[in-house]
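Example protein as discussed:

>
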Amino acid sequence: MIKSIELGYFQAHTYSRLMLSEGVNAIIGVSDSGKTAILRALQWLLTNRPSGTGYISNAAGANDATMVRVNFDNGCAERWKAGAGNKNQYIVDGIVFDAVGTGVPEEVEKLIQMNDINVQLQMDAPFLLSKSAGETSMYFNNIIGLDVIDASLKEANRLAKTYNRDAAAFEARATALMGSIDQLDWIDNAEGDLARMEKLILRQAGKTKQYNELNELLTCMEELEVTIAELAWIDDARKLIARVEKVQEQVATTSAEYHAIQTFIVAIENEERLIAQLTTEIVKSKRLFKKEFPDICPLCEQEVNHA
């Protein structure tokens, strides 16, 4: 049910809001007061027609937009078009949809559940009374979707014929297969043979695995033998190392003795230097003594030997 209608810059309406009641609502007013414009605005929302800009109010400025907003029990639908042509859209519960061509977005149709059949304008001919019986039938056929029903029935008949033909073919094929099944009695015995064969295959797989493992083991042993042969020089190397170790011990002993001799030689050289120094001191002392003491001792009056 429509609860309210709002118009903005639509024909004679700068802004109008109509609150509707349940049941029948009557809109009254003087001529050219905008009564029919309300129906046109509702038709514009329902069908996205008329196109163009003839319905835009003369009072609308360059930045004003023509608007129709209808509140239903289950939501709100709006139709907007800017005077400068920058906005041409539907709005359903706050979601914006572009108005393209003369179509109406599916979301709008689902909300409104109405079309131009529900609108009878002032100058329209009486509903269906001016139409021929054929036109009236065609009108009702379009309403109830009779063409869709006819197309669906034709498609159903076509599918039924196809299915019947396929069913007959399948039945013939099934009969032929049943005859073929009678020729396959040997399959029951083959199942036992197959079970035995599967066991043999499993045993063969186990033997094959063992054979492969033994093969790998033999290959490893051969590689080890080759490696051992290649490492025969190790014994000679060990003997050589033992001799080298003995030589190293002898070298260590000789080195210790050499260091001891060197230490002794250094000590002797130090003693020789000390003796040389003492000898020099003695010579100096003798010279000083000879110089300081007279040839005749003043105590005993004996000749002093300065040798």
